[in-house]
What does this fold into?
Amino acid sequence: MQGDVVIRTEGLTKIFEEGKKHEVTALNNVSLDIRRGEVFGLLGPNGAGKTTLIRILVGLLSPTKGKASVLDLDVVEDIDEIRNRVALLPQEAGIYERLTARENLVYYGGMYGIPVDVLNERADNLLDIVGLREKEDYQVKGFSGGMKRKVLVARALIIEPEIIFMDEPTTGVDTIGARIVRNLLKKLSAERDQTIILTTHDLNEVSELCHRVGILYEGDLVAIGKPSELEEKYKAANLEEVFTGLVTGEGVYSE
Amino acid sequence: MKSKKKSPNNGKKTMWLLKKEVKSVLRSRWLLFGFMISPLFAWLFQGVFLNFLFATAIEPEHVYITNEDGIDNSTSTWGDYLYNSIQAQFEYEKGIDDEYKWLNYRNLTTVSSNEGMALWDNRTAAVWILIPANFTEIFENRTGFQNVTTLTIYVNLGSFRASAAYERTKSFTQYLMRATDLWIQQVSPPAAEASYGHQLAIFLVMITSVMAPSPYISKSFAGEREQHTLEALLVVPLSRLRILGAKLVAGLLLTMIYSVFTVVGILLYNLLVLVRGSGSVGGQIGFYSVEPTTIPLIFFCQFLILLCAIGIGVVISTTAKDQATAESINNLVLLVPTMVIGILGFAGSISQVSGLFGLFVFLIPFSHAIMFLNGVLSPAPDVFLLTINVIYMLAFTIVFLVIGAKAFEREAIIA
It folds into this structure.
């Protein structure tokens, strides 16, 4: 199912306010590989560096040290090419509330130079998939949090990206909405072999969706592997125990 | 972050973004409503306010009169005739209803030439009629219809009552002497460089224009950052300069709506002045209204002001944390200097302000808008100075846009 390496970081480090009083090391020497078709989960408490890592990979931030490549393209040198081939679903809503659901999709796709007729065709299909076809001409401002997330997922997919970065896609969404988003991601992974990198706090979500996970803590990548491998490695009953133990130091931890 | 490989169809993508920006704002009904109603309200309010002042023009004015004609001899002169006729008319009007009064003076005081000048200088006299010493001499030495004599009337045009009293005096004296025989020399106090109507145009256009782009610009940068839509926008394969450019052009197009409604407002204002002013200060209508042929210039001037305001707004908005902060700082930074120079414009020429305050006034780009419009409306415009004004405003805008572009940097916005 999983193929060649599509994301590679080597000693990736990001320091904010470097050399200043409030210097913060958001990422510290992170090295990882992610393969095509993988659903890769980035776990970690708030401030662990998950969002920073995603932002570097989509060119919103530049690394302080180290290297990162996406689709064999350097995140510093070839960022425009990378942007043409990946999509980001940001942590916060990030949706144009005065545009309709369809307009949000078509508008976003238009900025990738995709012809309008192709965009409309894709929008029809995606709105069907996310179950918003009947609401396609409503301004998004009246939508619930879950519906907005669905629009955002559809928006990310309209450009048919090779990789989708999802920053906490179910945060702030009610249980039913989160379930819909999760099912959608499962479907994408199963049917399209879509590479998805998602950050989350929800360990069930990770267990359910992700082929592999990376646990970040205070900028360090403290663990990486399949959920079952990590449970075995750290002799934990489940991923939650692995995570809690790595982050808080509680529990059993032997390599 | 530098980008070495350029995305194809960048122009098409930028146009797409521009279209979305415009569409998104066109759906902000309150913003649009504000764009339309604010210039209309400003101009209509002024029109109605002037109407109220015009209404006061029918109130009687205290008029001073000096007759210097034939002061050194005992023979009757044309000046005496005029003077006595005005006196007689004033006395006659004391016993009749207001609606039948021609001169409608509240009081008529005879003063010497020196006294009259002193009253005029200290602004006590709003209307002073001066019959000069050579009044009869010129009148009687006329050849054919070419030589006419001159009556001097000092009038404070800032007072509607005085303006109306001047108009009534003019019609009465020209009736007595025949309009073709009597030339009225009007003397007004030195004040603003342009007429009341044009000063108003400059002031209103400036004060409303500097504020016009603020809601859109604040929403477009600080607002989008607050709503987290900027993050999604910054990952699309478009350079930040193209994103910035699309937003700027959208802002300019939208503020053009504002300009169009400013023109509508000016025309409505003129109509109000014409309808209500013609009865009382008819001869001064041109002073209070905005000359329609100057509207394209006002439009151009407004464009320059909008450019400057957008430039300043972009810098503020890209550095402010949220939309409310951006709008507050914008209001403070733009409104205060604009009010200062706007009011200075009414009091006199802003180019005459000197010292440190003068330098401050000169550095404000909107001062150059005033100087530009004043210059263009003056009888002998100095093309060099006008060019300097325009160049200064354009340079100011470019500098601020460059600063704004530097501030509109992906990492700075996102981090």
In short: The interface with chain B takes residues 16, 55, 58-62, 76-81, 83-84, 86-88, 90-99, 103, 107-108, 110-113, 139, 155 of chain A (CB under 8 Å). Chain A has nine helices and ten strands.
